[in-house]
Predict the 3D structure of the following.
Amino acid sequence: MRYVEDHRRQTRSRIVENASYGLRQKGADGLSVVELMKLVGLTHGGFYNHFDSRAALVGEAIAFAMDQMVERWKKLANGKANGDRFDALIADYLSPRHRDDTRHGCALPALAADVARASPSEMRALASKLENMIEIVVELLPDEEPKQAREIATGAIASMVGSIVLS
């Protein structure tokens, strides 16, 4: 049976998406390749048809999860007055709903400690996407000088992540 041309891309996307959910729930060190593939309903035998290594998948899954959070933040800010956008983001992030839904929540509380001991590709994925998150928060602070806005954004993200970890 022949697959449609797009089958390989769709399968890879499903693997990345489901891996991102699993990693947010169990951490980067909490799932083996076998377990990651089970999340998608596939056997581990086909893993290397899609990825060069487990680290490559974890890097993509981290990027996927963090991109989801950035999109959520953009939606929250859309249509709100400048003064309300930053507060709305913080309120949403620190909500019990976000804290309790690790599958769809921010990747940073679940993965930051694991990634600190991970491969360079995983570290780069997290660092790159963290930069995107900081820039989104900076955009919510148009009345601040750029340097001050970046400091506020970085501190706010660190505080929010720490609050979720501690809660």
